[in-house]
Specification:
- The protein has 258 residues and is α/β, with parallel strands linked by helices.
- The longest helix has 18 residues.
- It is 38% helix and 23% strand.
- Helix 3 packs across helix 4 and helix 3 packs parallel to helix 5.
- It starts with 10 loop residues before the first strand and ends with a helix.
- Strands 5-6-7-3-8-9 form a six-stranded mixed β-sheet, with helices on both faces. A three-stranded antiparallel β-sheet has the order 2-1-4, with helices on one face.
- It is built from ten helices and nine strands.
- This is ATP-binding cassette domain-containing protein.
- InterPro entries: AAA+_ATPase, ABC_transp_ATP-bind, ABC_transporter-like_ATP-bd, ABC_transporter-like_CS, Oligopep_ABC_C, P-loop_NTPase.
Length: 258
Amino acid sequence: MVPGVPPEPAVIVRGAVREFARPKPYPFAKRPEPFTAVAGVDLEVPHAGSVAIVGESGSGKSTLLRMVVGLLEPTRGDITLGPGAPPQMIFQDAGASLTPWMPIGKQIEERLMALDVPQSERGARVAATLEAVGLPAEAQTAVPRALSGGQRQRAAIARAIAVPPALLACDEPVSALDVSLAAQVLNLLCHLRETLNIALLFVTHDLAAARAVADEVVVMQRGEIVERAPTEQLFTAPAHPYTRELIAAVPEVREVAA
């Protein structure tokens, strides 16, 4: 980083489109037009910034997130990642994303190996990473099923940040947790963002979670961005009718925004 020069964004998305083929209704039928899940989206996440993408199921937010981390290729458009370690993904179901038969410590060590961390450093790095996400030392030898839901999500976060990525992509990371555990994980993500200087791209249908973690909120509907604004501005003075509908549907968010 050059002194006085703003750091490059963690990711820049320009004109991203993702289409999915529809099956033929019968063998000799003309193939239907493809389904467009993401329709020409522009998005930028600043270095160490936090952007939340909200919208109902089917709005295209998770498809966009998967394109950013490389799990899906865009049909058209460009996605440019900033410098630093590749983005990492935190999924809704941490249990499914962790290898069920492998101890948590070994799963973290695998990530260190993949990025050529010397063997002599790995043990200390694994222990430090578990401590950073609030897991006890004994979690290192535990398999995922031996942990609680909240602990499994922390373990998934630990694996993702063992080598801090430039961007941590989170797909509904607290939707499977109860309110108190969800609050703890959200606080952890905010803390890690600050201490590790990483960016967050946070996909959720939970407006309260978006408000807790994001500097900016992007609202998606039918594959398009219909509104984007700094977080408090969006919640206190939403401009788009769809945004107002989303806020009105959640009493606790509506009361704070009123």
